[in-house]
Design a protein that fits this description.
Layout: H1 5-14, E1 30-46, E2 53-59, E3 65-71, H2 75-80, E4 93-101, E5 107-109, E6 112-116, E7 123-126, E8 162-169, H3 179-187, H4 203-209, E9 214-218, E10 222-227, E11 233-237, H5 240-243, E12 253-259, E13 262-268, E14 273-274, E15 281-282, E16 287-294, E17 303-311, E18 320-329
Parallel strand pairs: 3-5
Antiparallel strand pairs: 1-2, 1-4, 2-3, 4-6, 6-7, 8-9, 8-18, 9-10, 10-11, 12-13, 13-16, 14-15, 16-17, 17-18
């Protein structure tokens, strides 16, 4: 095993303000280094984004049974490790090793998974062996030559339509909070991250921090952007009248325009929300400016540059910037999204 799921999970939950984050903080539920192991029969296997989950029934020493849940990375990441929705099936006998929960609830991370022989309990196959960390593309990942995707549409607009995957992560953005912002972040409890319980994410978290695929479709009067992680969907019109709203939402009110070879999107009317699993939060006065531009490269193929600038006069000293690039994937299919909350209460201390 050249790169374990444990290390991948650690990277996902512990890199502050990084693009390589899972949909929520594993540290909010699980305690790193608190080893746990369970053997049982699979009752449910959910190969979905924003995370893969396995439910199993384990028999205790006294003959009683306990329902366990094991949670791992996004299905998109496991797909790069060779997993599919057929990797596990109901009735399989498996042994899972990972990190246990902070509160003792019957859950653990999906770190090491072994398929067992129901006759004698011997190991048939170790399912987490991999040649990749599941977070970045391997050297042999298919790439679309830049010339295969026209740089412009027939009407002269930049051609951004298609699925864009495999983010090349930039360095974490520098977020500078004012005194009010610092006070708010100090009160956050990572165990209470709204995304742990499948609450809709805010725009900065959905559009800025996700490392997973997005799909852009361009129309005459609007642009459609869909997100593999969280299952977000945004219809963004060019006419200002379409963007006017007095109701604040998680994804806000947005208006789009083209500026030369770039697509520009401005958003406001956002609800206050967490921007990552570490408790960083922005107010409902936040505004977001997004820029999408083709940055094709002869070696890397058709590429999309994404820049997101978030400004918040309530909690930030100054705006912060998230930048990343994604590769075009011609036949990429989104993995369905189906969030499942953990087997514990919503509110608990750190």
């Amino acid at each position: 095993m050249t790169f374990t799921i444990r290390r991948a999970l650690w990277l996902l939950c512990c890199v502050p303000l990084s693009g390589a984050q899972a949909h929520h903080s594993f540290q909010g539920t699980f305690q790193p280094g608190k080893a746990a192991q369970v053997t049982g029969v699979v009752t449910e296997f959910h190969f979905y984004n924003p995370h893969v989950s396995v439910y199993l029934e384990a028999t205790n020493a006294d003959g009683s049974t306990t329902r366990w849940m094991s949670e791992g990375l996004a299905a998109s990441s496991y797909g790069r490790l060779g997993w599919t929705r057929e990797t596990l099936k109901k009735g399989d006998l498996i042994r899972i090793g990972g990190d246990g929960t902070r509160d003792g609830s019957p859950m653990l991370t999906l770190t090491k998974v072994e398929l067992l022989d129901p006759k004698d309990g011997s190991v048939i196959r170790v399912l987490t062996e991999a040649k990749s960390d599941g977070l970045r593309p391997t050297a042999t990942a298919s790439r679309t030559p830049a010339q295969a995707l026209p740089f412009k549409l027939s009407d002269g607009r930049p051609n951004l339509t298609g699925a864009w995957t495999e983010a090349d992560h930039s360095r974490p953005p520098s977020v500078s909070y004012n005194d009010a912002g610092k006070a708010l972040q100090a009160t956050a409890k990572i165990a209470n991250d709204p995304q742990i319980f499948c609450d809709p994410p805010g725009l900065v978290r959905q559009a800025g921090f996700t490392p997973h695929a997005i799909r852009i479709t361009q129309f005459a009067d609007h642009v459609l952007i869909e997100y593999e992680e969280y299952g977000g969907r945004r219809e963004i019109y060019f006419a200002p009248s379409k963007a006017v709203s007095k109701v604040k939402t998680n994804l806000g009110s947005s208006i789009a325009r083209y500026d030369g070879d770039a697509l520009i999107i401005e958003s406001n009317n956002l609800l206050a929300n967490w921007i990552n699993p570490h408790g960083d939060q922005l107010s409902d006065q936040t505004t977001v400016l997004e820029t999408y531009r083709r940055v094709d490269d002869p070696k890397s193929g058709a590429m999309l540059s994404i820049q997101l600038v978030a400004a918040d006069p309530v909690y930030l000293k100054q705006p912060f910037v998230i930048t990343k690039t994604k590769r075009y994937s011609e036949n990429y299919q989104f993995i369905p999204n189906e969030c499942r909350p953990p087997l514990r209460s919503r509110n608990q201390p750190n």
